[in-house]
Write a structure and sequence with these properties.
16 strands; single chain; 2 domains; 305 residues; 8 helices; Rossmann fold; 6-stranded mixed sheet; elongated; alpha/beta; 6-stranded parallel sheet
Length: 305
């Protein structure tokens, strides 16, 4: 895809090759390969295997394990501009470092803001899907670049309408309420939000703040933006089945799914795990690639304005 004679090329960071291929095909843009390895002392080696001079470059990153990818993520844009790229943007469907968005104890790093400053200094635009916004109202508060956010709720609601009879959308905790309510509204389904008390990184207690008897006969669908350890969702599954509901679906935007998360959910009694294709995983059933490509077009246009 070119823009007034300025072509676009798509370049994947390691682990993002499949996603970059999907985006490049839809954008009608060539795929530029990247050679990446570690020197003996642990430093990152990068080599762009293509001509990017005069091009806009869209770097694609799948950030399931962000720390391992930080050197390439931050060093690559400077190398691309040094090789003649006109602008460099970032497609990161899953945007990490949104969890620590405030200083809860003295001396803590507010890494959501630190990471935003690093990315804003390296890239000219950003496309992502449903970042984990809690105490930060929008990316514009912390990112000093053009950003376009793709909403997953319409695609999730469409999946619900097609696959679940009489769904009850359930947010497992207060932070999930924004996604659960949006999906429920678009799907024309009722929704409830559970209450979570955290006892540690993987230990939580879940309760329902009110009666759920009016929703008996519905199929519960737990909806959250990130499925990480699965602890919160597993406790929510146990609560719902303990109250007489059918085995719930678990629908997540981002399939982080670390360690034994899937096994934990299966043991708790989940019916099925379904995720969007922001992070490549066998549970990906909800495609957002077309919406991401539309957002890339908007981001490039905003960058030119």
């Amino acid at each position: 895809m070119s823009d007034g004679g300025r072509p676009l090329c798509v370049l994947p960071l390691p682990r993002a090759e499949a996603a970059a291929t999907r985006f490049a095909e839809r954008l009608g843009a060539p795929l530029c390969a990247l050679e990446s390895r570690r020197f003996a002392d642990g430093e990152t080696y990068l080599r762009v295997l293509g001509d990017v001079a005069g091009c806009d470059v869209a770097v694609v990153a799948e950030m399931r394990d962000p720390d391992a990818q930080l050197p390439g993520l931050l060093l690559l844009p400077d190398a691309l501009r040094d090789l003649g790229a006109v602008s460099v943007g970032l497609i990161a469907p899953y945007l990490p470092y949104m969890r620590q968005d405030a200083r809860f104890r003295p001396g803590e790093a507010v890494t959501a803001r630190s990471f935003a400053r690093l990315i804003s200094s390296a890239y000219q635009w950003l496309v992502t899907v449903d970042p984990h916004l809690h105490r930060i109202a929008s990316l514009d508060e912390v990112y000093a670049l053009r950003s376009v956010v793709v909403q997953s709720a319409p695609a999730i609601a469409a999946w619900l309408r097609a696959h679940v009879e009489r769904p009850l959308v359930v947010g497992p905790d207060a932070e999930s309420a924004q996604w659960a309510s949006h999906v429920a509204r678009l799907a024309g389904a009722p929704h409830i939000v559970l209450r979570k008390t955290r006892r540690g990184d993987t230990e939580v207690e879940i309760d329902a703040p009110g009666s759920t008897s009016q929703h008996r006969g519905c199929t519960p669908v737990l909806v959250d933006d990130i499925i990480s350890t699965g602890s919160t969702l597993a406790e929510a599954v146990r609560l719902l089945t303990g109250r007489g509901f059918a085995r719930p679906f678990c629908v997540g935007v981002h399939a982080v799914l670390v360690g034994d998360a899937e096994a934990r959910l299966q043991t708790a009694g989940v019916r099925r795990i379904v995720t969007c294709d922001t992070l490549t995983h066998p549970s990906n059933e909800i495609a957002l690639a077309d919406r991401v490509v539309e957002a890339v077009t908007l981001a490039r246009a905003a960058d030119r304005a």
